[in-house]
Amino acid sequence: MPTPSALAALSADLAAAVEQAARSVVAVHARRRIPSSGILFRDGLVVAAQHTIRREDGITVTLPDGRSVGATLRRRDPGTDLAVLALAEPVPAPQPLGGDDTLVVGQLVLAVGRPGPSVTAALGIVAELGGEWRTWPGGRIDRLVRTDLVIQDGFSGSALVSATGALVGLNTSGLARSAAIALPATTVARVAAQLADQGPVERGWLGCALQPARLAPAVLQATGVTGEVGLLVMGVERDGPAEKAGLLVGDIVVALGGARVHDPMDVLAIVNGNGAGTTLTARVVRGGAIAELPVTLGARPRRGRW
Length: 306
What we know:
Elements: H1 4-22, E1 25-29, E2 36-42, E3 45-49, E4 59-62, E5 68-77, E6 82-87, E7 108-113, E8 120-130, E9 133-134, E10 140-141, E11 144-147, E12 159-162, E13 167-172, E14 180-184, H2 185-198, E15 204-205, E16 208-214, H3 217-223, E17 229-236, H4 241-245, E18 252-256, E19 259-260, H5 264-272, E20 279-286, E21 289-296, E22 298-299
Antiparallel strand pairs: 1-2, 1-4, 2-3, 3-6, 4-5, 5-6, 7-8, 7-12, 8-11, 9-10, 11-14, 12-13, 13-14, 15-22, 16-17, 17-18, 18-19, 18-20, 20-21
């Protein structure tokens, strides 16, 4: 059994690891209510969990020193649930991402987030490690890293931190609802660099209003659709991409671009992850049967629907 002095030393080491990592962790205000977290990975740039970026205008970031600065969305990748934000001033990144190759099952790790002005931390272990895998939207993750950490509100985008204070990954609840998944630093650094260096993209626009709708058992049986919820088309923008593709009010969208959709945010992620001119197949339930419509995304208006 550890002695009181050994426990005190471990406690001090963990507190020091949190303090070190917290210098790189910011709060991202890009949705209603609780902010999410992000990591300074390059001077003036923040990497965050893309599913927490619910708007593209009026984004602000709270820095570790408490200052608030404006930010713009550079790019996002729904496949890996990562987004890069460009800060309005050249804030330095205190330490690089790395060290995920040293992770072992059972190792103590921390989630260090900033879902507000103050830093928060949670302690757990690495529960499972695996090889390369693909997310449901098709993103390539270099290594499976599952922890037993509880990813609380605002913790998506937080840093996965080793006991020495290394930034070994980014925590997210956007890729697996039943498990705490961390994107390894190797993946985060690779994808974030791609998003940062490619620069801003002209956002795709679908041009319709959607809301979740439950599919009747008879429809599920007749169409073979899995899952009970689709997205009911409530409105279609005149001359927009959805109308040009033949999407009608009353259609129920069950997949877009090959990905099953259950929530309007699923569609937002897919549409925002593709540029104008991209053609995606919308799979819809119409009159109890399946129809597949190729939709070519337009340029997203400054103010408008998807």
